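Dear colleagues,

As part of the handover before I leave the project, I'm documenting each prediction I ran so the next person doesn't have to rerun anything. This entry is a single chain, and its sequence is reproduced below.
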Amino acid sequence: MKQFRALGAGIAALALILATPTMASAGQKPKPAPGPVVKSSQVVAPFNLDIDGRDVHVADGFAGIVGTLAADGSITPTVNPAPGASGVEVSQNGRTLAFTTTEGEKEITASGLNLWGPRGSKVYADTLAYEQANNPDQDVAYGVENPSQCVSDALTAAGFPVSYTGLVDSHAYSVTQWGRQWVIADAGANALLAADSAGRVSTLAVFPAQPTTITSEMAAALSLPDCVVGIPYRFEAVPTDVEVGRDGMLYVTTLPGGPESPVLGARGALWRVNPWNGSATQIATGFLGATNLAIGQRGEIYVAEYFASAISVVRNGTKSHFLDLTNVVAIEAGRGGSLWAGTTISLDPAGPQVPGTIVEIVNGKWHKKASFRH
């Protein structure tokens, strides 16, 4: 059972983005790319960005606002407050602002997609209510199939749920427009949801469980007994971002729904989803904290790896390193082949304190446009 709650509830929450059970990440801090130019200090945790012409929109979950980046680097609020804001996108005709919000600390009490249109119109697509009524992954089996008593006792003692099906949980995290519908990556429901302009919600795709066979090294790191070695554990696939490709397909990043650290390996994944029938195909894996993606001019896909402090690029199903960037949590394609990325403030009070930033990347170099030091 993942612990994905309202990220705006506190700084420490991001370290638990999808950790199950709660475990500290061994986040790496590679050397940054050369050539940063700091413009201002304004963001805390820019979970998602959207580039609309010359405008840069940001959903800052810890600040609880949705806004636009001004020329002087300040953030002009569009929605304030926007509790637990995480996703943001402007419609293709420029008339609707879509953003996701989530409320609640220990338990999510509200989550959904907000559609703010012309002349003050406001529509709310309630994904939590939809999850409570439908629970799209209720038939997906997680954990261990037919566990022995030793395995059950060991997993329970370690804080892992032994065997279960999809729980009632919604966290509307990212959003994109596909045709006349909005597609929501719901990190609680383990699904892609669709919402129309009236706020009606439906299921577009449900992600399958992600099995990992427990090795002796994994068992030792997690203090599990030998009876667990060789057992496949079916983790949840937790969608964090969705984008529309040039082929009309949807591309999605997922976290593995378990310990997000090198203990169990880099298990985040990139998927291609057919929006007409909901079929999902994994096209790349090996990401450590895949929180966001962007599609480049030539169809290449960039993936933000939060716990690796790096951006990877996937070409023809092959993953390679693109750029080191500490605490990178969001990435978006911009004008003229540029990329924009968001990074969070430092979450480790014992480590070096780094600012949250909005970053423009041109030809593999990054230039800070906005930052906030907590």
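Confidence is low (pLDDT under 50) at residues 3-40. The longest helix spans residues 149-158.

All the best with the project,
I.
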